[in-house]
Amino acid sequence: MFWSKNPVALIDRLKELSSRNINCYIQFTLNDYAAEGFEPNIPELTKRIDTFKRLADILGVGSVIWRYDPVILTDNLHIEDHLERIEKIGCELKDYCEKLVFSFADIAGYRKVQYNLIQGGIKYVDFNHESMNKFADGLTRLNKNFGFEIATCGEQIDLCKFGIKKNRCVDPLLMARLFKDDERLMSWLGYSDMFGAPESFPKDPGQRSVCGCVLSKDIGAYNTCGHGCVYCYANVTPAYGKQGCVRAQSDIKRESVISQVN
Q: Which of 86, 122, 128, 259 counts the most CB atoms within 10 A of its CB?
């Protein structure tokens, strides 16, 4: 499973993955924070929407999942603004997407995120149960035009009364639907011809208690993303992450040269 807000570089590598019999699906974070400058180093929204469509055309509609997260409130950015932006993106993706996943910004839980927002002069507003329910209600009403499956990621609050489920980003049910011919994967997940789906799946112990992901290994690295998003918890600061990205790229080039020499 790939997770990115700018996976355009993956498009040219999908044939290689297919030739190696490597299946994949993509969690595509597609927000609209252009006016606020919260995601300064990613392509403009229209280009990212185009990338989403191209990936869906290649992999299949169910293989590219739209993530609108995190949802951030500020003194100038309100729930109504988010719903308006989601509606515009949804109109573009309605024929290319089955599922929309969102999460509420958990700023208090990440001190470095809180620090970076304050340093950037961003007057954020914490979500509470009332505002979470208001957002969920508005989103559900919008979804009558699209028919997406809607789910939350890592949220304590239960929004099932709005028809919103709790998500599994690393999802064994989705993998079984998309990759049912991958015998090794199906065996590891516990599927069998005789008994079908297992009663339960191995939960990832390294995630939060409310996370529903199946056991998996994350190969990402902290302080190596150059997107510079103000809400990022994986970089100490946006600038430090950009420096780490340059260092990581240099390491990759050096290892490539060494392997060619050897």
A: 86
Structure tokens at 100: 């929309």
Q: How far apart are CA 232 and CA 238, in angstroms?
A: 8
Residues forming beta bridges with residue 192, ordered by sequence position? 196
Higher-confidence residue of 210 and 9: namely 9
Which range is most confident: 85-89, 185-189, 196-200? 85-89
- Tokens 């208690």 correspond to 209
CA–CA distance, 78 with 76 (Å, rounded to integer): 6
Structure tokens at 255: 């290892």
- The pLDDT assigned to 194 comes to 61
| Mean predicted confidence (pLDDT) in 135-162 | 97
Q: Which two tokens stand for residue 146?
A: 């699209």
**Which structure tokens are listed for 225?**
């993303």
Q: For residue 163, give the 3-state DSSP assignment.
A: coil
What is the pLDDT confidence band of residue 258, given thresholds at 50, 70 and 90? Answer: very low
* Residue entry with tokens 């304050």: 118
Closest Cα partner for 60 from 142, 182, 214, 179? 179
Contacts of 262 (CB under 8 A, 6+ apart): none
Distance CA 143, CA 149 (A): 9
pLDDT(249) > 70: no
Give yes or no for a contact between 152 and 167, defined as CB atoms under 8 angstroms apart.
yes
How many CB atoms within 10 Å of residue 207?
A: 16
Report residue 46 CA to chain centroid gap: 18
pLDDT at 252: 38
- Contacts of 109 by beta carbon, 8 Å cutoff, 6+ apart: none
